[in-house]
Write a structure and sequence with these properties.
Elements: E1 3-12, E2 16-25, E3 29-38, E4 45-49, H1 52-60, H2 65-78
Antiparallel strand pairs: 1-2, 2-3, 3-4
């Protein structure tokens, strides 16, 4: 599974932030997600959520939903993300 994460928006601070974005699976399928980051991106913990309809679509495509969410959270925690122009990782993440 090749999962890529793009952040659309971050609200909050380096301590706690609400994140919205999209992730792609195998560069074919794109889905929205929301996440809450505690203790900074690249830091402590992130809880990502995807809608039930997205979970059903992922399952229909043959992916394991828990593995997808786990991979999404790992990418967010490690800062393996892309950002929109003008948003700098340093404003909300560990460098």
């Amino acid at each position: 599974m090749n999962l890529r994460v793009h952040i659309n928006n971050v609200h909050g601070s380096q301590i706690t932030a609400k994140i919205t974005g999209v992730f792609t699976l195998d560069e074919l399928y794109s889905f929205r997600f929301n996440a809450i980051a505690f203790g900074r991106i690249g830091g402590h913990n992130i809880g990502a959520k995807i809608p039930k309809s997205t979970q059903k679509a992922i399952t229909k495509l043959g992916y394991n939903v828990d593995e997808v969410i786990n991979e999404l959270q790992q990418k967010l925690v490690h800062g393996d993300i892309t950002l929109p122009e003008g948003l700098k990782k340093e404003t909300f993440a560990d460098s």
